[in-house]
Design a protein that fits this description.
104 residues; alpha+beta; two-stranded antiparallel ribbon; 23% helix; elongated
Length: 104
């Protein structure tokens, strides 16, 4: 393969990768912030980690949310703050998040 052809192929691959990154940035799903305070069974603010998972769904606005998971560490005083895609009116109907609490 000549040097020019190799250079053109590398350039084409680079352009394709940049285009993919741009489309990923544009396609980010709008999220909503969920905030609450988590308490232990004895009524004191909890400490620990919350693992959140979900199946893929399409938001009411038509944005596709791929299946995934995330985790968040509870803040001072048991504060939970996490950004999630809204699932009200989502397809399939009945889409939900699962939260597993690992408390200290």
């Amino acid at each position: 393969m000549s040097g020019i052809k190799r250079g053109l192929m590398l350039l084409a691959a680079l352009v394709a990768m940049i285009a993919g990154c741009v489309s990923m940035a544009v396609a980010q799903v709008a999220t909503t912030t969920v905030q609450d305070t988590v308490y232990s069974a004895n009524g004191t603010p909890a400490a620990g980690t919350v693992l959140v998972s979900w199946n893929s769904f399409t938001t009411m606005g038509g944005q596709t949310v791929p299946a995934g998971n995330t985790s968040v560490t509870l803040g001072a005083g048991g504060q939970l703050t996490i950004a999630l895609a809204p699932n009200a009116g989502a397809t399939p109907m009945g889409s939900y998040y699962t939260a597993v609490f690992h408390l200290n």
